[in-house]
Amino acid sequence: MTRKENMKRIVIVGATSAIAEHCARCWLETGPADMLLLGRDVPRLERVAADLKARSPDSSLQTAQADFLSPDDIQAWAARAYGAGPVDIVLIAHGTLPDQPQCQADLAASNTAMAINGISPVLFAEAFAGRMQQADHGTLIIIGSVAGDRGRKSNYVYGAAKGLVTRYAQGLQHRLAASQVRVVLVKPGPTDTPMTAHLKEAGTGLAKVEDVARAIVSGAQKGSRTVYAPGKWGLIMMIIRHLPFSVFKKLNI
């Protein structure tokens, strides 16, 4: 990742996710940027980069394939990103939406779901957090989920992974509170992306990905510690978190 004068330096982990792609578009609307896009699917990464380049010809866009489950690879990419100096924004956006019944029946599926949705984002955040702290500069955005606020029978393996992300982000915010580094935990509700296509087919109301991305970018710019996207989910989840178990156990959610 080369240094470009007067450009924001942005690293997006999981850049092929719909939310990440739209966040990138939002940032490029404000001016050219020097972006490193990390992902697992190289052809999709290249398509995302080509679209962003068409929208912002003066931007510098680099793509790279990373092993999201390898601590060594994660550490190496954080080091490479900082090779040309401090990074302004790191967005950690990757994840999958596992099938809960499959996770219950197959421990390998549970292991993969927990690793990619919980452990991997945390390792990426930790790899970048130390460098941000040393530079005393930057905003680290971690995408969790409203599913992490309370375990529910419909998706508790996924929710457990996102609960890990929530507790980690809170601890990291505490650690960096006296610094100039900002840690933003994002908790999207169900969003209209390829990952939730089956929910859309089932008639579930989904937020527009463009609106969720703008809420993330706006919240990060304001320095918010937690961003529910859309904002209504903050109230919804507060109610769900505080329901007595005698009531909660009767809900089919």
Automatic annotation (TrEMBL):
<dbReference type="Pfam" id="PF00106">
    <property type="entry name" value="adh_short"/>
</dbReference>
<protein>
    <submittedName>
        <fullName>SDR family NAD(P)-dependent oxidoreductase</fullName>
    </submittedName>
</protein>
<dbReference type="InterPro" id="IPR002347">
    <property type="entry name" value="SDR_fam"/>
</dbReference>
<comment type="similarity">
    <text>Belongs to the short-chain dehydrogenases/reductases (SDR) family.</text>
</comment>
<dbReference type="InterPro" id="IPR036291">
    <property type="entry name" value="NAD(P)-bd_dom_sf"/>
</dbReference>
<keyword id="KW-0560">Oxidoreductase</keyword>
